[in-house]
TrEMBL record:
This is PGG domain-containing protein. Keywords: ANK repeat, Membrane, Repeat, Transmembrane, Transmembrane helix. The keyword Plastid does not apply. It is found in: Membrane. One of its GO terms (cellular component) is plasma membrane. Pfam families: PGG (PF13962). It is a multi-pass membrane protein. Residues 141-186 form the PGG domain. The lineage of its organism: Eukaryota, Viridiplantae, Streptophyta, Embryophyta, Tracheophyta.
Length: 192
């Protein structure tokens, strides 16, 4: 990284097509040495609150990345502890809504709260999750009923097709009553 910055000093400003900078990426991919290197640079203040396409600052990514220790990030004086993503979530919301548990997350929750971070939407998110859990089983039952009806229809059609003689039955009276229309064809005579 030192060599790259020596040849292209402004490359730290580059972002991915998702708007993530090198600080986002070092956290996301758990590159501890790169993270430490970046945090020691004077220009880190320009990166620390830069948001990606989803509105996530590096602290949001850090909150969502279990087992990555970047203690300097939440302690950095310029890091906005209550930055909002496009989903209206603070870094603390990200941790609280995560289904992955780690001791690091417990420590991060305490550190963020001590630094004035708030949990903006946890109650609203919990209500949304509860509502989704109520709606999903009803939809699944409707889909299951539809599949049962379709399966019954397919079985009925397949069963009827097994007993239907090609060409159908003649509707004439007399000695040929009820005989297959194509019964005089060679292929049908051998199959009967």
């Amino acid at each position: 990284m030192e060599d790259i910055l020596a040849y292209c000093p402004d490359c730290w400003e580059m972002v991915t097509r998702d708007g993530r900078n090198i600080l986002h990426l070092s956290v996301e991919f758990k590159k501890q040495e790169a993270f430490k290197f970046i945090m020691k640079k004077s220009w880190v203040g320009n990166l620390i609150n830069q948001k990606d396409a989803e509105g996530n600052a590096p602290l949001h990514v850090y909150a969502a990345t279990p087992n990555f220790h970047g203690y300097d990030l939440e302690n950095h004086p310029q890091a906005e502890k209550n930055a909002m993503s496009k989903k209206n979530m603070t870094p603390l919301d990200v941790i609280m809504c995560s289904d992955v548990y780690s001791a690091r997350q417990d420590a991060l929750i305490e550190e963020l709260k001590a630094k004035g971070a708030i949990c903006q939407n946890s109650l609203q998110l919990q209500k949304k999750v509860d509502l989704e859990n109520e709606v999903v089983p009803i939809d699944i039952r409707k889909v299951a009923d539809t599949h049962m009806i379709v399966a019954s229809l397919i079985t009925t059609v397949a069963f009827a097709a097994g007993f239907t003689i090609p060409g159908g039955h003649g509707g004439n009276d007399g000695p040929k009553e009820g005989l297959a229309v194509l019964s005089r064809k060679a292929a049908l005579e051998h199959s009967l």
